Each structure stands twice: as C-alpha cells, then as structure tokens.
Amino acid sequence: MSLKTVRHLSSICFRLLSPFSCLLPVILLFLIFTSGVPAEEEMRGIWVATVSNLDYPVAPTASSEELARQADMILDYSKACGFNAVFLQVRPCSDAFYASDLYPWSAYLTGVQGNAPDSGFDPLTYWVNGAHARGMELHAWINPYRITKTAADWERLSAASPAIQHPDWVVYHNGNYYFDPALPQVRQFLIDGAAELAAKYDIDGIHMDDYFYPGTDFNDAASFAAYGNGFTNISDWRRNNVNLLIQGMDEVLHNIDPDIQFGISPAGIWASRSLHPAGSATTSTYSSYFSLYADSKQWVEAGWVDYIAPQIYWEAGHRTSDFNALTDWWTSVTDTTDVKLYIGLADYKSSGITAPDSPWYNGTEIARQIALCHANPQVAGVIHFRYGSVVSSPMLTQILVQSYSQ
Length: 406
Prior knowledge:
By secondary structure, the protein is α/β, with parallel strands linked by helices. Helices cover about 40% and strands about 10% of the residues. An eight-stranded parallel β-barrel has the order 1-2-3-6-7-8-9-10, surrounded by five helices.
C-alpha cells in the first residue's frame, strides 16, 4: 500500500468517524503494518527525560534502591508498550547521570550537584544492563551547551562544574548560562565528554536534541572578533561552529566504536521555503537553520550522523507546519544518503485534551502518524516524546501496545 493511499484512507477515516473519535485510533491501526520497514528493523524509541525530574527520577534521591526501582518500572513499561529503544537523558545541564571524570553528578539525580548516589550506584550502568536484558537498546541523550535551566541554578553549581572551572567559556543569555559554541576548547570538551560515554559504557548510541544556539541575540560578538576569520556573516559562522562540533563527534565516536549510533533530533523545520529556497513546503518563521544555527540538512548530506530524528510536533494539515509536508521534506533530504530517518512524535500533545474535535484527542493523531511513518519506506522508525506522556494516558498506551505488538 502506497504512502499516498495510507494518507487518503486515514483522512477518510478521520472525516467519517470523527463523531466516534474514540474508535479512530483502533480503526487506523489496520493501516500500520501494510508496508514499510520490517518490524524487527524498525526503530520504536521512547525519550526518558531527566531535566526537572520530568520522567526519572520522579524526585531527586541518592537511594540506589529507589533509583533502581524506578528504572525497572520505566523499562518494564516501555518494553510492554513495544518500544525497542530508550533514549535516556544522561546530561541535561552540563552534569551527569553517570560516573564522569568531566561532569559532576546531576542535582536532578541526587538533589545536590556533585553528590553521588549511595552504595556506588551508577544509574547509566544499571539502565544499560536493564535495557539489554529486556532486548532493548539504550541511547545516551546529552544536551551539549546548556548549563542552567533556571536563574537560581547558577548559585547551586558544584565547584566541579566545568562552568565554574572555566568561567571564560560561559555566556549569559535570557536568564540562563550556556557554553559558547565558538570556542575550540568548548568543542573539544564536549567531544571528550561524548568519548568518555562511548568508551566507558556499553551504550548503543549517543543522542543530541534540538538545543544549539539559544537565540539570535546570543552575546558572542567578542568570540566572532576572535574566531570569525573568513566569515563576514555571523549567522554562517555560528552554523559552522555547530558543524565543527558535529563533525568532530562523528569522527571521534566512530574511532572508539565503529558500530555506535550517533544521531540528532533537531527541530522539525530546517527552514520553510518562504525563508530558504531549499526549505520545506511550510510557512513557519521558526527554523533550526535560522533560529538555532543548526544546519541539520548539511549534517545528513555530509554523513556526519548515522540517523536524524526531526521533531515533527504538528498534526497533518497544520496551517503553517504540516506533518505530511515535513515528513516529505525529510524523506527527500535523506533519500540518497546512508543516514536513517526517524520521526520524533509529540505524544505530549495528547495529554489533557478533552475536545473531541481536536486531532490529538484520544491519541488519534499519534495513531495516524505511526501509520503514515510505517507506510513510508524511507522512514526507519519513530521516537516518542516522552515516557511521562505515554504512561499517563491509557489510550496512548493502548495505541502503542496494539501498534507495536505486530
């Protein structure tokens, strides 16, 4: 069955059955496994967020028993839903959910940055072993530049924080602190941090999300003056700084482990065609290329990543950011490359929806997007954001179990 046919049938189902929207997710599921990537090869991933204790742990604790119990609960539930890969956030704010020689233990883990869990417990080792024992992959998700999440976090940083040890690497921006992507020593430190993970842990991949430059008004004029030789446009220079990091990580990680999967989940819109002639058939003014200085299209074309997982967090038919148009664009970008395409899905948008006419009601849009992705032979799988949104929704859980039990 072609992707066009699946879209057409799902659209018909949505229109005809919208008065009975509680039935829609189940009706759509028969479309899911008619074509596309074989189930044993398909990525079925789930993001587990640790920043602000969104998913793990539910509250900071040094108790090894409690940390292990919560990890088992999440892994068991994820396995029962049919996921075959967990993307665990192990470095949310230049800190660590693992025993690191470069980053202090995370305050989101134990409550105080720098304080280790008791009994010599290493959460990442436990998660890796637990995932593998259940036949699942474990990918270490890192946030490269972010140092703080709230203004008060700076005062609570450990003396071992790289930001405290290297204040000249830090830029203040809109109430928070970030490492300056322009500095060669920052890039090397970030690469060293990824290399440490790959060398010490039996992880299946290193994963980065969509946080690069935090804004167009980032205060890096001094860095541009010092390191901007050859660039007349600060935007091109910023994109090149990020490119150097991605290229460097790719080389170092695969020298350590040729089989490790290095991938990124950028913002779903590289650029709209109204802003860039090579962009997608969308009209949004927000893009990773212009807003975050993340040229994810080039990363794919240059082969610096093993997979790309754009966060396409809008419904089919969205006025400015149509899911179908974006999936088509990413399909065309990856089509002639060896880079795998996974689609990031916004399960969180189904949380708390009570209006039956909403496409996100009862997980309808998630069911339809799973079907569309599976029918597209270029899409090698999906990653769902996030664990807390799934576990809190019986309907989403039902959709996933039915989808991934095939």
